Amino acid sequence: MVRPGRVISRQGVRLAAPLRVPPRRRRWSGQIHSIRPERVDRQAIDSYALLFGGPDCAAQCIPNPAGGRGKMEKTGMKRARRTQDERSTATREALVAAAIEVVAEVGYASATTSLIARRAKVSRGALQYHFASKADLTVAIMEAIALELNFRFDLEALRQAPLRRRIEAMIEHYWDVFQGRMFRAGLSIWVVLAGDPELARRIEASMRLVREGIGSVWHDLFSDVRCAQRDLDTILHIVMATMRGSAIAFLAGRAGTDFGAERRQLADMALHAMERLVETEAR
């Protein structure tokens, strides 16, 4: 007895089964032949478009009663393709963001490149293309933290505000960043720098340029405070150091602490210091 699908020659020799080609899936042509154009409503269009073309097609298909039996036209279906540079930049940013998340969750030592690539949904090869080593990625993480900390606010709007409002806005912005994943990732990296002098040297060289940018932003925001630049830098360093200490205490879960009151007190101290500097310079 010959099984279905077998090919047997006259001599009874079993031959290979014929190759089965899967049926070709027909793509939706944009026409609905079973519905007359005058009876086509938006609900029917959405139903057919979602079934055959997806949600984008449903949103962009319109009926064309003059075009025949339920014929539909697609408008604006093609999306602008990103350039190679745009795709490369997006991949790099996704890798840095994924690295920050992973380091904040599992710590720097356990944050392997495989885990970071998996979180970013890219291949290991893509990660190595943008960052040849974990140290390169670590430097990019620290740069991203510094940029988020010091350049993500509207200088034009703050520059017109009263002095105390500007100080409070800066402190609140720092506090928001220090409570997030970026600061936790930065803490994990800072802990290992003592045992890795080469990585510490690279990060210090990168942070030197970032600190120069921070100083320029700080001076631009408080350009009306007539005092020496070194004195303004001293106030900035004190504010930043105090904020980092409060953030570490917050992450450690220090009970019974009113961190809002601490920030208000810090704003009072910074305002008083600036006013004293202005008075000293005026004498």
TrEMBL record:
Keywords: DNA-binding, Transcription, Transcription regulation
Gene3D superfamilies: Tetracycline Repressor, domain 2
GO molecular function, a single term: DNA-binding transcription factor activity
Nuclease keyword on record: no
DNA-binding span(s): 112-131
Keyword Transmembrane: no
Coiled coil: none
Pfam families xref list: TetR_N
Domain of life assignment: Bacteria
Annotated protein name in UniProt: TetR family transcriptional regulator
Protein source organism: Allosphingosinicella ginsenosidimutans
